[in-house]
Amino acid sequence: MATAIDAAQVTYEAPDLEVMEKFLTAFGMVKAEGSDDRTLYMRGTGTQHHIHVTRKAGKQRFTGASIEVAAYDDLVELAAKPGSSPVRKSTEPGGGHEVSMTMPDGIGIRAIWGREKAAPIPDREPFVMNNVRDKNRVNAAVRQPVAPCTIARLGHFVLHVKNHDESMAWLNERFNFLPSDYFVPPGEEGPVVGTFVRLDLGEQLVDHHFMLVLQSDWVGVHHSAFEVTDMDAVMSSHDYLVQQGYTLDVGVGRHLLGSQIFDYWKDPFGFRIEHYTDGDIVDGNHRPTKFNGTASDTTQWGNRPPLEFFQ
What we know:
It comes from Streptomyces chlorus. This is VOC family protein. It holds the Pfam family Glyoxalase. This protein has 311 residues and is mainly beta. 14% of the residues lie in helices and 37% in strands. The strands form three sheets. The chain has a ten-stranded mixed sheet with strand order 19-10-11-13-9-14-17-16-15-20, covered by helices on one side. It has an eight-stranded mixed sheet with strand order 2-3-4-1-5-8-7-6, with helices on one face. It is globular.
């Protein structure tokens, strides 16, 4: 199976690229080279050429996600799977090669390799936190203005599917994913209706989850999530987006599964998008648990989502 090494991008369609660019800039992204009047490419401070793509279309739609793999041979292996495209040169800025696939419910998954890396954008250092025991910040103050934060990277995305087991079998046949935690119906021990998956990179530390696959009555993206510098970045950006009149969804709070401090917003076309920081990092010793609570129970503290949040 192919070795996935990073979440490369999420791709959407929308009728107004200028409106989307204005929001994503306020959210903390930067317009990337190669954007034109048909396609908007947005990047973070990291080395992915772009992490969020919007193509101009008559109505809004999520079209899929792109996953970076470790080697060209991974693309060759994926291309041999039923329903895959041949290996071909990418037409997106940054180049490289790709294989396009479609999950059982029609969600597009694209594997990419060899895309040109972007030069990192300088960002401030994370603020060092003092606690009751460890005084790490000495003779230094925290000064964080209310302003757009800086997005570092695409951390994960959440997909709703009609058949969880079928979708997970499709993914596991193609990529080196490991389960981190499971969702089961509230108050029950099974069946599994959602799986948090992470990358398997040996001894290398990885995020608690790279993707969540969740069974639902509808198919599509629940949200895409972007990592920011620290909690002050989350909070100051929250205030800025409120001031700009954008639509808050759920936040700020701390998740139970993955532990991230989160802040969910709706973009101008109704797609849910998340700022997060301070998520769990795991290695190969991590073992999954089962969670059988409600959506509200997924929050440890802060603004709790409504019961229908994951439906």
